[in-house]
Amino acid sequence: QRRGVEARGFDGLRQNVGRAVIPIDWHDLRWGPYVWECDLVVCCEVVEHVDPCWLNPLLTTLANGRVIAMTHAIPGQGGHHHVNCQPSEYWIDHVERRGYRYLPVESAEGQRRIEAAGHWTYFVDTGLIFERLGDPRTGPLIQTGW
Asked: Listing from the earlier edge strand, what are the strands of the sheet with 100-102?
């Protein structure tokens, strides 16, 4: 935001909103999807905390973006309130059914670049990138070949 990019974030826990270092909205997916159309949705280590009964508002929220970059916890991965740990194929199937194309080359390249920079994030292990199909706006956001 300091660089002129219009950005938003939200959290379902009021105490997290109060502790955020930049302003974010308070929104619980049990109320319905968070709606704000944008170019990019980044969802890091969230989906495994959302009970499968709330999958529709979660996926509708992700579908705000032309591009989705997300991570997820895998079956057996420990963590607080992990109620929907799934393999990548589960998330790929659900997001593709929302009109997106999984980008395996770009996902792998993002993972490789993070590792090459000497960093580790959850994206290295389970990062997935998707691009909306049939977007009426011109040109893809993701350029192949990096």
From this structure: 38-43, 65-70, 128-132, 100-102
The CA distance from 109 to 19, in Å, is 33
Nearest residue to 126 (alpha-carbon basis) of 77, 83, 73, 90: 73
pTM over 0.70? The answer is: yes
User: Helices 55-62 & 88-96, crossing angle to 10 degrees?
Assistant: 70
Q: What pLDDT, on a 0 to 100 scale, did the predictor assign at position 87?
A: 97
E strands, the chain, are: 10-11, 25-26, 38-43, 65-70, 100-102, 128-132
Q: What is the pLDDT of residue 59?
A: 97
And the tokens for 44?
A: 């890091």
For residue 146, pLDDT beyond 50: no
Give the C-alpha separation, 29 to 35, whole Å.
11
The dihedral sign for the CA sequence 26, 28, 77, 8: negative
Residue pair 45/61 in contact by the 8 Å Cβ criterion:
no
Mind listing the pLDDT tens digit for each residue in 30-43? 999 999 999 999 99
- For residue 68, the tally of other CB atoms under 10 A from its CB is 24
